[in-house]
């Protein structure tokens, strides 16, 4: 064995050990989250009990306490009774616990919050849907402010490309569930808050049940389908909704369904559908992964969401009224908010943030509920049943094309096959002369945005961004009209979606008589690389940057 | 229009603010006889600018046609889902296109606001 082989083997062995340790670490972390959750549940039930709150939960609490085998003898024994009376006394005297006065002191002394505001925060459960660029800062500030419960919904795991903006996650949590990662971080920030993990993507079938136990919802998601679903669910359950979004350098923020009145009640706040009744065309929907996002931009929006949430909670959220059962379903132990005499609401508005414009903030006055709104008007057609049964198809409503699959299999070339084809051509050129085989060189059209193209691209590639193709035929025509000698046109993008649409576009232009490719170019010679540059990095050239 | 009084005060504020950095969106006063259109998010990507001015007066209901003519395909790809504002008030072209329809006046500021859904 040569010395290099020795070192190589050592490197390999170390790699394996690092990987094993990482797996173990991840596992430990998961166990820790579980254990902390159990401990938390116990603490929380304890806390409720201290305040003379749900006695109905006593048996559950006992079970939890027994389960983790601690604080035994506290409940139902002589000293237990003493403890209780002591707590009862302290409750009468000081509504907050000693550590709460300390922890929340800086906001408690503000007249906007004061003791009453803090008590409202402490009895309010907030659901944060999406634990990404918006959800992380929003959840941080809500946990910091001392709400009763923060529910976290997300089905994704932490990725390296999340870390520049999703400030609850960290490098060692890559691969961990976002919800677990966030809960761990939040718990270390404020252990007095109860954290509920929903490690799943929101679907119409589960939305009603999930939202029901919360008083307020934050939409921190990243797709039109979830935006409409969350808004509809909030209208049905009469929950106020704080909705924010961000892309590139811009953000939007709205407080919706506030006051949260039943559908048909014109005094209720507008819903998402009132502001945006028609979803954006599916192919124009851009994610942060595609369009990019500046960390502080989405951070600002998430922080503003937390601020609006705190304002709503402190002002007092009217109790939801169950129209179906015609009874009040306000939860036990909740600080009562005045209803009819609710404090004057801010008129509904849409806040636009645009980091590179002057002024960066603009606030647009919104209208009240739309007369023909599908969700919140008197003629609403969206019902609880249509949601739970799944008959309401949000993907269809938003025209989701996911993932793009417009080309037949034989119109696409895999990264491996493309590599083989090009190597073969290169070999022919070198061995049999470039006159014949030079003409067989293909034209590579890279349809990513220019800024991405500038990051990394194939040597011979020409750049015609998909956004330009979408807006106008000319750039594509111009780029391809002088290439009469070349037969094959290979289109590539980052993931292999836009490239398919571009191939379709090129074929369409050719049919309309555009001078594209050579006379020999037929449709079968216009192809895209399946899976795009990501597949190229994965299957052919690991050094090719992935971003 | 009811919001004209408000508009004037807003514009006074704007024109007294320092000049924006080069390359940033300008909310400076439109030339006489013109109104300003501000493009946000995908609308601004589509037209490759953040604002421009058009000749006033123009019935608001005609605005999309004017934009479509200048930027073919914009109606279907962008405008169909956009919220529209005039002097920071949300307007609804369908609701407002009946009697006494809204006419964009010199100095008005129109916002073209597509829904942003990512986050």
Automatic annotation (TrEMBL), chain A:
Known pathway: tRNA modification; 5-methoxycarbonylmethyl-2-thiouridine-tRNA biosynthesis; Cofactor biosynthesis; molybdopterin biosynthesis
Q: Report which reactions are catalysed by this protein.
A: [molybdopterin-synthase sulfur-carrier protein]-C-terminal Gly-Gly + ATP + H(+) = [molybdopterin-synthase sulfur-carrier protein]-C-terminal Gly-Gly-AMP + diphosphate; [molybdopterin-synthase sulfur-carrier protein]-C-terminal Gly-Gly-AMP + S-sulfanyl-L-cysteinyl-[cysteine desulfurase] + AH2 = [molybdopterin-synthase sulfur-carrier protein]-C-terminal-Gly-aminoethanethioate + L-cysteinyl-[cysteine desulfurase] + A + AMP + 2 H(+)
The UniProt record gives the binding positions of ATP as 133, 154, 161-165, 178, 222-223
- Describe cofactor binding as the record notes it: Binds 1 zinc ion per subunit.
Q: What class of enzyme is it?
A: transferase
Top-level taxon in the UniProt lineage: Eukaryota
Per its record, what are the GO molecular function terms?
Answer: ATP binding; metal ion binding; molybdopterin-synthase adenylyltransferase activity; molybdopterin-synthase sulfurtransferase activity; thiosulfate-cyanide sulfurtransferase activity; URM1 activating enzyme activity
Q: Could you tell me which residues belong to the region Disordered?
A: 72-92
In its keyword annotation, does this UniProt entry include Nucleotide-binding?
Answer: yes
Please report a single Pfam family linked to this protein: Rhodanese
Q: Name the needed cofactors.
A: Zn(2+)
Q: Which biological process annotations from GO are given for this protein? A: Mo-molybdopterin cofactor biosynthetic process; protein urmylation; tRNA wobble position uridine thiolation
Alphabetized, the UniProt keywords read:
ATP-binding, Coiled coil, Cytoplasm, Metal-binding, Molybdenum cofactor biosynthesis, Multifunctional enzyme, Nucleotide-binding, Nucleotidyltransferase, Transferase, tRNA processing, Ubl conjugation pathway, Zinc
Q: Give the UniProt family note.
A: In the N-terminal section; belongs to the HesA/MoeB/ThiF family. UBA4 subfamily.
PANTHER family xref list: ADENYLYLTRANSFERASE AND SULFURTRANSFERASE MOCS3, UBIQUITIN-ACTIVATING ENZYME E1
Per its record, how is this protein called by name? Answer: Adenylyltransferase and sulfurtransferase uba4
From TrEMBL, chain B:
The free-text function statement in the UniProt record for this protein reads: Acts as a sulfur carrier required for molybdopterin biosynthesis. Component of the molybdopterin synthase complex that catalyzes the conversion of precursor Z into molybdopterin by mediating the incorporation of 2 sulfur atoms into precursor Z to generate a dithiolene group. In the complex, serves as sulfur donor by being thiocarboxylated (-COSH) at its C-terminus by UBA4. After interaction with MOCS2B, the sulfur is then transferred to precursor Z to form molybdopterin.
Q: Name one GO cellular component term.
A: molybdopterin adenylyltransferase complex
A Gene Ontology biological process in which this protein takes part is: Mo-molybdopterin cofactor biosynthetic process
Q: How does it assemble?
A: Heterotetramer; composed of 2 small (MOCS2A) and 2 large (MOCS2B) subunits.
Provide the alphabetized UniProt keywords. Answer: Cytoplasm, Molybdenum cofactor biosynthesis, Nucleotide-binding, Phosphoprotein
The record ties this protein, via Pfam families, to:
ThiS (PF02597)
Q: Which family does it belong to?
A: Belongs to the MoaD family. MOCS2A subfamily.
InterPro entries found in the cross-reference section? Beta-grasp_dom_sf (IPR012675), MOCS2A (IPR044672), MOCS2A_euk (IPR028887), Mopterin_synth/thiamin_S_b (IPR016155), ThiS/MoaD-like (IPR003749)
Q: What residues form the membrane-spanning segments?
A: none
Instruction: For the region Disordered, give the residue spans.
Output: 1-28
Point out residues bearing the modification 1-thioglycine: 119
Superkingdom as given in the UniProt entry:
Eukaryota
Q: How is it modified after translation?
A: C-terminal thiocarboxylation occurs in 2 steps, it is first acyl-adenylated (-COAMP) via the hesA/moeB/thiF part of UBA4, then thiocarboxylated (-COSH) via the rhodanese domain of UBA4.
Please give the name of this protein: Molybdopterin synthase sulfur carrier subunit
| Classification lineage | Eukaryota, Fungi, Dikarya, Ascomycota, Pezizomycotina
Composition bias, Polar residues: 1-18
Give its localization: Cytoplasm
Reply yes or no: does the keyword Cell membrane apply.
Answer: no
CDD domains cross-referenced by the UniProt entry:
Ubl_MoaD (cd00754)
Q: Which GO terms describe its molecular function?
A: molybdopterin synthase activity; nucleotide binding
